[in-house]
């Protein structure tokens, strides 16, 4: 061990460090860059053609897609308004119940 340390002095140490600095990233890239299909593959990771979106190209397809999107937005808007009205009714009922309890307590 001491003979190795005695050899790695001055210029030899610098050559060893330079070789390490150069070879380590090259070895790292070689290890992770080869055989990628088997090493990092996940089954069914990418969607199939049937699962992915189909971009409409014709005017009729675009109109159908816009109509579908508008219908979905209308349904969401209606649901949101219904939930807001329900929450507002609950808040009013709570306020009314509180005012009745305060009136009953003060009497």
From TrEMBL:
Quick one: where is this thing mainly located? membrane
Compartments, as annotated in UniProt: Membrane; Mitochondrion membrane
Question: What are the protein's GO molecular function terms?
Answer: unfolded protein binding
- Look up and give the membrane topology term: Single-pass membrane protein
TM spans (from-to) = 15-33
GO BP annotations listed = mitochondrial respiratory chain complex IV assembly
Record's PANTHER family?
PROTEIN PET100 HOMOLOG, MITOCHONDRIAL (PTHR33968:SF1)
For this chain, the family text in UniProt reads: Belongs to the PET100 family.
Q: What name is this protein filed under?
A: Mitochondrial cytochrome c oxidase assembly factor
**Species classification:** Eukaryota, Fungi, Dikarya, Ascomycota, Pezizomycotina
């Amino acid at each position: 061990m001491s003979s190795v340390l005695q050899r790695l002095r001055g210029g030899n140490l610098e050559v060893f460090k330079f070789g390490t600095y150069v070879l380590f990233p090259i070895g790292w890239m070689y290890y992770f860059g080869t055989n990628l299909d088997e090493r990092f593959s996940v089954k069914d990771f990418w969607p199939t053609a049937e699962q992915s979106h189909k971009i409409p190209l014709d005017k009729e397809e675009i109109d159908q897609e816009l109509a579908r999107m508008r219908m979905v937005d209308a349904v969401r808007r209606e649901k949101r308004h219904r939930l807001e009205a329900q929450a507002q009714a609950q808040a009013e009922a709570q306020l009314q119940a509180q005012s009745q309890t305060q009136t009953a307590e003060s009497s």
